[in-house]
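Appendix C: a fully annotated inverse folding record. The material below is reproduced so that readers can follow the format used throughout the book. The structure is listed first as tokens, followed by the designed sequence.
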């Protein structure tokens, strides 16, 4: 039976769910936040140590400005109202990506990381303004600047996920089968589960089903 240490999730389908059931993409994002809370609680119950959530990609800036502003306000309100509870649950927050947001949001993200830095029950890696291609380019730039040998070990020192184990599982909801520039290096040997349900409709039962399936997969890593 496989041990499960790190789950990564592409939370796709909020906007489509919102248009279908609430006539509003924004309300879909709001509903999706409820699913995030359920999955966090389930991850703790299942003793998962790392949960990486793809919240906003470097390509998502192409979306309408009103939707982007709503997303960031939703995040600000969530962290402002729930950070103490997150900290009390011994959850660590780490931001993956590049903090090029408003001064208020940047300060809030920095504060969340600092406040929770010693927590060890669950580490939530929140991918914001994250793109794997940019991450890799920047890593190679650092290697070149340091004039060190190009190899896997040195490259991984300069990735945003330094000191974080690679995901055992990638889950993508929303009935879309692509990686969307997410953890391209780190997902090399991850088991990938594409889920038809849109993110707000994804339940703890669905999550547990995937976890159980993963634990029974024969993982060869190139061996027979």
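Designed amino acids, in order:
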């Amino acid at each position: 039976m496989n041990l499960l240490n790190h789950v990564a999730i592409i939370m796709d389908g909020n906007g489509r769910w919102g248009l279908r059931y609430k006539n509003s993409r924004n309300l879909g994002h709001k509903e999706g936040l409820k699913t995030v809370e359920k999955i966090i609680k389930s991850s703790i119950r299942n003793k998962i140590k790392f949960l990486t959530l793809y919240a906003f990609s470097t390509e998502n800036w192409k979306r309408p400005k009103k939707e982007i502003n709503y997303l960031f306000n939703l995040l600000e309100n969530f962290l402002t109202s729930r950070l103490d509870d997150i900290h009390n649950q011994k959850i660590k927050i780490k931001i993956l990506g590049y903090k090029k947001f408003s001064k208020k949001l940047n300060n809030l993200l920095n504060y969340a990381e600092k406040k929770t830095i010693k927590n060890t029950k669950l580490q939530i890696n929140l991918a914001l303004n994250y793109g794997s291609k940019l991450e890799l380019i920047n890593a190679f730039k650092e290697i070149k600047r340091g004039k060190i040998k190009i190899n896997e070990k040195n490259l991984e020192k300069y990735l945003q996920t330094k000191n974080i184990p690679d995901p055992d599982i990638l889950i993508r909801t929303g009935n879309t089968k692509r990686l969307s520039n997410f953890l391209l290096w780190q997902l090399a040997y991850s088991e990938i589960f594409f889920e038809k349900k849109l993110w707000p409709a994804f339940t703890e039962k669905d999550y547990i089903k995937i976890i159980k399936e993963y634990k029974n997969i024969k993982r060869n890593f190139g061996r027979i």
